[in-house]
Amino acid sequence: MSRRRNFNEPGHAHELTFSCYHHFPFLTAERTCRWLADSLCEVRRELQVDLWAYVFMPEHVHIILHPRNATYDIAAIRQAIKEPVARKAMNYLVETDSDWLERVTVRKGNRIRRFFWQPGGGYDRNITEPATLRKMIDYIHLNPVRRGLVGHARDWFWSSALWFEMQSSTPVELDHIPPEWTR
């Protein structure tokens, strides 16, 4: 499997997309979305990253982040978001003796691995222009509408669309987008 190259450019925003293992709908569970929300909040605080937009779909995630530090590693940021969720999910599956455990387990010789997220980095799109940022925000917010899950983006609970439309609170707190990005 080839790896996508990450570009850690100061001042850039990043639209990250990553998927659940085999596109299983793990993010339909409220607890799993809460784990992801908690992980995002922790990463924002610990790694000095702003969260500008998000949508959690049943089997994948889109987030738009803006690292505040001039030097950063977007791959490490992505891993810091995903790893705690996967760890909690696997612990939950083991504790509940879930049928899902076998479906996420891969055996290679004596080695056993369990996957919550699809292996690989997913997609990382650098955003450098305000117009591109707006298009990416609209694109991710419309995911549930395009899939026929809701009639309006603002109706999808695990999304920042409601905040953008009505300045209403959302399950995951957003950071302020600076004026130079909203022109």
Rounded to the nearest angstrom, the radius of gyration is 17 Å
| CATH fold naming | Alpha-Beta Plaits
Structural class: alpha+beta
At the first level of CATH, what is the class? Alpha Beta
Distance between the termini: 39 Å
Oligomer: single chain
CATH arch. level architecture: 2-Layer Sandwich
Shape, please? globular
- The percentage of residues in β strands lies in 15-25%
- How many distinct folded domains? 1
Helix content, binned percent? 25-40%
- Series of secondary-structure elements, N-terminal to C-terminal: EHEEHHEEEHHH
Unreliable stretches (pLDDT < 50, length at least 5) are none
Number of helices: 6
Count every beta strand, where a strand is a DSSP E run of 2 or more residues.
Answer: 6
Overall pLDDT confidence: 93
The largest sheet, given as strand count, sense and whether it forms a barrel, is: 4 strands, antiparallel
CATH superfamily: Transposase IS200-like
Write out the strand line-up for the largest beta sheet, numbering strands in chain order. 2-3-1-6
